[in-house]
Each structure stands twice: as C-alpha cells, then as structure tokens.
Design a protein that fits this description.
429 residues; 22 helices; 79% helix; mainly alpha
Length: 429
C-alpha cells in the first residue's frame, strides 16, 4: 500500500480541523506528498508554485476585484439598488424582490458573492429591518441572492476553471447568464409564494414613470459596466483580461471624475483590500498546484474516476454522484480550494461520460456557489453574521427553503444541458 495516499489527505484535513488557513494546509499537504515520493521530488515544489500562477487569464481576477471595490466604495452601486426598488419594490415583499434584482445587477459588476453579501448586509438588510422584515429573513434573502454574483459573469470561479482546464472563459461567461437569471426568478417566486404567510410588508403602490426614469438615470452609468464587460468579451473585441482592465478604467472614471466620490484615502484602502483578496486566492492556486501535481503523478484522478464508474456506467448516476460529492465537500472547504483541487479530477470524468466541457464547468461552479450559503463554513453566512450581528443559526433557519430551491435549479441545469448551452451556441462560442 502507498502510505502517501493515506498520509496526504489525513494531513490536509488534520490541518484544517486545527484551524490552519486553507492555502497553507493545501501547500504543506502537497509538500508532504512530495517528500513521501523522495527528497529529489521536493525540489520541484517551487517550480510548481510558479507554474500554477503562470497563466495570462489569471490577470483578469485582480482587475475584476479592483473594479468591484471601486464601484462599491464610490457608492455607484446605490443607484442600482434604487433602480431595483423602483421596478419591483411596490409588490408584497417588495424589498426582498428588490434585493434579488439588485443582486443580478450587482453580479455583472463584481462577480463576488461575499462582496454582494457585505454590501447589501450594510445597506439593504438595515433598510429591510426598518420596513418591518425580520433581520434573519433579510439576511437569508441577501445570502440566497449573493450566489448570483459568481454565476452571472464576470466570475472569478469561471476564470479559474477556464484557465486550469483549458475551457473557453467567454463560453463559461455566456453559459452562466441563464442559470443566474433562473436563480433570481425562482427565489423571487418563492418570496411571492410565502409573502402573505410570512406577513411581508407591501410597497406603497406601483411606481410612476417619472420615478422609474429618475432611478434609471441614477443607476444608468453603473448598469453600463456589465454591458461593456460582456459586450467586449462575447463580441470578440477583448479578452477577459483586457475587459477587466477596461472595467477598472471605467469605474475609476465614473467614480472619481463624474461622481467625485473617491479620495486618495479611498483608493489606498481599495488597493489594500484588492491585494488581500487576490493574495488569498493566488496563494490557494499556487499551493494547489503542488498538491495537484502530486495527485496527477499518483493517478488519484483516475482512481476516483474508476471508483465512480464502478458504481454505475449510467451518465445520470455519475452526474448525481459528482453533485453529491461537490455539495458535501463544499460544506467544509473553501470553494476556491475545492474548485482548484477537484476540477482536474472531475472534469475528465465529465468528458468521459459525454458532457460538454462548458456545461460541466457551469454545473461544478454552481454546485460550489451553493456551498457559500450552507453551514458550517458558508462564507456568505459568516459575512452577513459579522456585518449585521445576526447569528448564523438564525440566518440558516430562514435560508433553508432558498437552499432547497437552488439545489433544484442545480439539478435542472445538470440534467438539461441545453439550458446552459443555449446562449454559447447562439453566439458561436
């Protein structure tokens, strides 16, 4: 028996249990694996660290993160919230509906679930409380809408997956549009169905044309950013990295020149926060490259594929097992780390059972997105708990219907490929 195959996962999960940051846990586990293979293999670890980051598409990530931070800090996104409220705020449970619509708009700017949760936790959750919603329900709606962020492009998870697996990032961006809109639609339907039973407040009446026009004018410049990003990428005018740089320039111009809402102090804080977020993600990617090489050398992906195929050779059963694996691991692991470790394992298996690589990528990414709002380590839950003061338990009690609804959407997307691939095929991607 190769004891390394037992020692490495035990070391990795042991480090996580004792609270070691996930990037260090992955890297040390990979080094232990290389040491088990022999000291000469350890000399390859530094090379693998740099090789894991030496991908041009990865440059898009810090740019998209920076653009989102600029838009958030300058208050430009407040206009999107007002526009969403003008469109659907008049309904029963209107502010909950507005939260979902704003999440769709916000997704096209930041592509980050935690940024969405933090921004709305500071703004929409207090406003919903003031309007008569319970804090736990307001947080639950925000958490449910937050995963729209990394589903509708731009999405750092799509950039990571596309770069690692050699899948078209533009194709993944296009494929994420319908699933993201479907999540918003189903969550809004759930809010509407339960609004009267929960006694959710009703808005003041249908908005006038003037109020919608004023809200549209205020949020117009912010709403244009996703158009620039997606239009330039899907139209073939720019790569995702170039589009991300355009997004930074546009957000700086709008926030600094038109709205005059950015100071030098703001820019410094934005740069620090962007560096921290990017550093964490890149540390995980670099460390996972070491562990990934060890897994590939020891044929771990092939062994997992053979184990799953030994259960059944039915593609639908295999897809179900993959989803179950992702949802379970997502309960206890950071989604970036999970994606980087498991994508090279699961993606070849999906190709083997005949799945389109873009369809498989969206399925994997959406399954991991759902884990952002599931305890015990759901990042969005902890962001909302820290921002609002609500307990994770209280948020989870109100959140479970949304979790079930989004798992149902995941199943629909997994077993109905045309839903995901319609827009990429329409655009010839």
């Amino acid at each position: 028996m190769d004891w390394g195959l037992l020692l490495v996962p035990l070391a990795f999960f042991g480090f996580l249990i004792f609270g070691m940051p996930v990037g260090f846990a992955i890297g040390i586990a990979g080094v232990i694996g290389m040491l088990d293979m022999g000291p000469r293999f350890l000399a390859m670890a530094p090379d693998r660290v740099f090789a894991g980051l030496d991908m041009f598409p990865f440059l898009a990530m810090p740019f998209f993160i920076l653009a989102g931070e600029i838009m958030n800090r300058s208050g430009i996104t407040d206009g999107l919230v007002k526009l969403a409220n003008a469109l659907v705020g008049w309904m029963r449970g209107g502010m909950a509906h507005s939260n979902m619509v704003a999440s769709v708009m916000f997704a096209g700017i930041t592509g980050s679930a935690t940024a969405d949760a933090a921004a709305f936790g500071n703004t929409l959750v207090p406003a919903m409380q003031k309007a008569g919603y319970s804090r736990a329900y307001a947080c639950a709606v925000t958490a449910a809408g937050s995963i729209i962020g990394p589903t509708i492009p731009p999405s750092t998870l799509m950039i990571i997956y596309g770069s690692i697996m050699g899948v078209s990032i533009a194709g993944l961006f296009a494929a994420g549009i319908l699933p993201g809109l479907l999540i918003a639609a189903i969550c809004m339907a759930l809010i509407a169905l339960t609004a009267r039973r929960k006694g959710l407040p009703k808005g003041e009446g249908r908005p006038s044309f003037r109020s919608v026009f004023l809200a549209l004018r205020e949020g117009f410049l912010a709403a244009l950013l996703p158009v620039f990003i997606l239009g330039s990428i899907l139209g073939g005018f720019a790569t995702p990295t170039e589009a991300a740089a355009i997004a930074v320039a546009y957000s700086l111009f709008v926030g600094g020149v038109i709205y005059r809402a950015l100071s030098w102090s703001d820019l410094y804080q934005i740069a620090v926060r962007t560096t921290r977020i990017t550093g964490i993600i890149f540390l995980i990617i670099a460390a996972a490259s070491v562990l990934g090489w060890w897994m590939t050398f020891n044929r771990v992906p092939q062994m997992i594929a053979e184990a799953l195929l030994s259960v059944s050779d039915n593609p639908n059963v295999i897809i179900g097992l993959i989803l179950l694996l992702l949802l379970v691991i997502g309960l206890v692991m950071d989604i970036n780390a999970t994606l980087i470790i498991l994508a090279p394992v699961l993606a070849p298996l999906t190709v083997q059972i005949g799945m389109d690589p873009v369809h498989a990528g969206i399925m994997i990414i959406l399954a991991l997105n759902i884990s952002l709002m599931t305890p015990p380590v759901g990042a969005c839950l902890f962001v909302l708990a820290s921002v609002t003061g609500e307990t994770v338990e209280g948020i989870t009690r109100e959140l479970w219907p949304f979790i079930l609804a989004e798992v149902a959407i995941l199943m629909l997307i997994a077993f109905w490929p045309n839903l995901t691939l319609f827009i990429p095929r329409l655009l010839g991607l």
